[in-house]
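Today's session is about reading a structure prediction critically. Students often jump straight to the picture, but the first step is always the sequence itself: look for stretches that repeat, for charged clusters, for runs of hydrophobic residues. Only then move on to the predicted structure, which in these notes is written as discrete structure tokens rather than atom positions. Here is the chain we will use throughout the hour.
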Amino acid sequence: MQKILEIKDLNISFKIEEDLFRAVHGVSMMLERGKVLGIVGESGCGKSVTAMSILKLLASNAVIDSGEILYKGQNLLELPEKKLQQIRGSKIALIPQDPLNSLNPLYTIGNQITETIRFHRKVSEKEARRLAIKALQDVKIPEAENRLNEYPHQFSGGMSQRVLIAMALSCNPEIIIADEPTTALDVTVQAQVLDLIREIQRKRNTSLIFITHDLGVVAEFCDYIAVMYAGRVVEYSDVRTIFENPLHPYTKGLMESLPAENKEKLNVIKGQPPSITENISGCVFHPRCSFRMDVCDKQIPQLKNIKDSHITACFYIDYRNTSQKLEGKYF
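Below is the predicted structure for this chain, in token form.
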């Protein structure tokens, strides 16, 4: 195992009016070279905030309270902006979820890709154009040389997303952060884009952080999974272990909500995720949990290694490991 990125005890808050509200609570996770880490959870659980903090691409009212983000042992949070700019796009690249908001409508695709290449790779304009054509060809955009002169509005949603992938890959980064890159696409195009990302990731042995709420995609796409709820990691393990034996009640709930041929109706997790301004004592999931115990609303469970790097934070799991009295289905 070769770690290329490690997040340690990360805490992030947002300033709303005059108050600070914690959005990410003590998050820790690790990315291995050449592997895919999936970060899953409902909207607002802190997935994107955690990932965007790696490159310090957070909103102006965000405050990184504490923690470390180590890239090859170097804490990115301590780097001055100028050095961080050299890493963004070059060593660690981002594939955002919305091409319409990520591509500048006033410039050609070629201008936008070559600008990135020339900034990081210090090559001539001619060489940057050649590399830009190669990048478009790598993501299977036909007639790449001609399309380099076109504007974003001349591309479909799927092709626009391929352009963003090409931009992310144009400087051969070691790590790619894909922030729900298929959200705005229809199902058929989603599958094509995901296949493309996976193909390129394997071919280049690139490390990938994949942010999504789609467990079906995670099952096929990722090597490891970090499940987040209300700004905390509640379960972490390899993808096979999580799907065969989910431990945390929230993970179980997500699994039970997946559609299947033998299901007459979809199960749902009761209630709603808490907002950032809510102050919930104890385990943040206990108001929605069918397995909650007296301790759950009084104390915050800590992440524990249950077995073979299968990590979770749940008092019920602690109790179950010492007593078999509590049994039953999640719903």
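Discussion point for the tutorial: Residues 187-204 form the longest helix (18 residues).
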